[in-house]
Amino acid sequence: MAEAPKNFYLLILCGGGGTRLWPRSRNKTPKQFSQLLNDDSLIQITYNRFKGYLPPERMFVVTTTKKYAQIVKKQLPKIPKENIVVEPMRRNTAMAHGLGAVYIKARDPQAVILNEYSDHIVHDVKDYLKTYALAGNAAAEGDWLVAIGIKPAFPHTGMGHIKARKTWKKVAGRPIYKIEGFTEKPDLKVAKRFTETGYYYWNAGLYVWKASTFLRAIKKHEPQAGKSLAQIEKALGTEEEQKVIKKAYEAAPNIAVDYAVSEKAKNFLMIEANFDWVDIGDWEVVYQVSKKDKQGNVVIKHGKRGEFVGFNTKNSLIHFDDQLIATVDVEGLIIVDTKEALLICPREKAEEVKKFVQKIKELKKLEYL
Hints:
Elements: E1 8-14, H1 42-50, E2 59-63, H2 66-75, E3 84-86, H3 92-107, E4 112-117, E5 120-122, H4 125-141, E6 145-150, E7 160-171, E8 174-183, H5 188-197, E9 200-210, H6 211-221, H7 223-235, H8 241-251, H9 257-262, E10 268-272, E11 277-279, H10 283-289, E12 298-301, E13 307-314, E14 317-320, E15 324-331, E16 333-337, E17 342-346, H11 353-362
Parallel strand pairs: 1-2, 1-4, 2-3, 6-10, 12-14, 13-15, 14-16
Antiparallel strand pairs: 4-9, 5-11, 6-9, 7-8, 7-9, 8-10, 16-17
Helix pairs in contact: 3-6, 3-7, 6-7, 7-8
């Protein structure tokens, strides 16, 4: 894949918590910084996809604490320190996208931003980058916001959906659609109907737009967020920069970009993904995307001395460090063993881990969060 055009920039959003991946994902090391699949963390895997396509000088990360910024710098040492932007408080994805756009636009007023989250896994990286390039070129043509849509594999109530039927134009034989609407997280009945039609796609948050186009859109559709971002843009490079950012964030709405802009904007295009995409949301997903042995087990060791010995153990995930993990006559389990906590649960109950973490909060067992 040839290097990206000079006005292309990557923005990685890196603020999630990942409570369903406890105990690997915790407050001090949330899932994006954790080694869930191999020796690289999720954010390192994300960075590696773009390595060679974009130079580190044109990669930006928006995160939510100074501690997280330090981890980003440690795990991605080639990204310049000034490209790691820290939000003063959590205000959801509309402001995170906006803050990144403000900093990138200051670097290059003609910048086209390839937005990505830090916890996605993609196969077929070559096709992934080709799709981003196609979306970037479409965004650069005019006042367009572009989404990369995922063809639904099943009715999904946890994903936003994009309706797209009419072709805007074809590029290199691939249709670019004019989006008719976004629907956030439909109930099961509606999700089934969407999937059956064939012209709804999952919204994975893979957005591409010119920095200037997005900032105009957020000013139009979410005026308070637009006002806050305009204040920040004006203060960049001054002694008051951090003070203004904090004050602007205090006044900004806590709203996702999908509600703030995507559902309201009429200048949205969509390109269908032609690559496999996975959001690493829980331990069942880790199991599904990982290599299995002859018994259907996924065994992931991060320590130097650890060992797994299983007798009549099938279709289970064993994730551990330096311990000996022994299992006898079990099937379909998730076993995650860390220095401070041990999780054991049926694979089909992987989603319930989030409820358990909430229970820990209620019990004020904060040292385990």
